[in-house]
Amino acid sequence: MATRDTETTVAAMSSGAARVLVPLFSTLASSTMLFVLVILIYYVRFRRHGRIMLGNGLPGAFDDAQQAQREEEMYLHTLDDQARQQYFQAKAFQEANPPDSANTDISLSQFMSIQEKGVSAWEFEPDLEATTCFVECRTELAFYDQECSVQTNLPIPKQNDVYYWEAKLYDFPESTIAAIGVATKPYPAFRLPGYNRHSVGYLTDGTKRRNQPFFGKTYGPVCRQGDVIGCGYKPRTGTVFFTRNGKKLEEAATGYRQNIFPSVGANGPCQIHVNFGQAGFVFIEANVKKWGLAPMNGTLAPPPAYGSSEITDSVLLAAGFSAQRSSAEDRHGSTGSLLDSHPDDGSVMPYQSDISLATIAPRHHGFDAGQVVGPSSRTGGPPSYTSEQRRQQSATGAQGPPPPLSPEIQDHSRYERM
């Protein structure tokens, strides 16, 4: 009887342990399988073929340095000697001048220039040492025989949702290839946009290049003379897109968070005119939504014109005008009475401390060479005012009676009447 009770107790305990352990082991097995699955997904997405998580938080983004190294090993032998030399020169340039090496933010003076000039504040800055590209009227570009590119003086702003600009192909031979796009600064001036890191460009042969010096990917139609290529930028997502003759193409690149500059380049003779918003766009949506880089006209009022009544409203300018007027009156008075009668013989002699503007008379007609002919009693001319009389007349602003004649002139008049 006791043995049977013991067996019953053991069976009950075993069944209770089974009810506890089975769910526990099942939970542990499920957790282990879920953990293994997460590790496998992470490895497949972010670790396979050198993919990593970059510091900007973009999941699955490529490491540009490793990707460029692999492409260099695969495609460098396909380039000719000149292209290979340009590739190494551009690589050395960007290693010595990374995008963060210079401050490219819009400064206060540049911001004030935008407020005053509007979209006219943007202009292309050519390399003064190179003779392969010239800039006329700020946005008219002329390229010649060698590969060359130019960038604007100001980056694309980031306040609005979208910014847009266009480039029209003038005098464009079919043998020339041009690239329109954006790039960071500094960028090698002997390379087209899209050929090096931190750049993207739409080439006239219908291909797109993003950080790609070896080959381009088919992107859009081939462009010829008279076509208009547009480039748009969305600062919030860092997206770059292109248009051709007013038709929008697919997005070309994303993730451009740095300051980027409109860039245009060509490898042969051609002329390209760029429109940043100073005229209407071919892309209608950009016209309706006003996607230009800045307003067509500046919002900062120009200074008032000289001589207007607005200038006198300023206390500082009014004080300056008063000081200038009194200074001019003092100069007038100092030169007004340059002549005086000699105490002995009645001749007219200039003061030694004044500057006389009278004419020196020749020796004939009874005068010495040192004597001065002036408006005196000898010539019968009108007498000159003194400094005090000129100051009083200027202060009152009225034309009063002439000053009284000096005694010498009165004697001379009396002598003439006799």
Automatic annotation (TrEMBL):
It comes from Protomyces lactucae-debilis. Residues 326-350, 366-418 are annotated as: Disordered. Residues 75-281 form the B30.2/SPRY domain. It comes from the Eukaryota. This is Concanavalin A-like lectin/glucanase domain-containing protein. It is found in: Membrane. Keywords: Lectin, Membrane, Transmembrane, Transmembrane helix. It holds the Pfam family SPRY. GO terms for cellular component: membrane. One of its GO terms (molecular function) is carbohydrate binding. The keyword Transmembrane applies. It is a single-pass membrane protein. Residues 374-397 have a biased composition (Polar residues). Residues 409-418 have a biased composition (Basic and acidic residues). The chain crosses the membrane at residues 20-44.
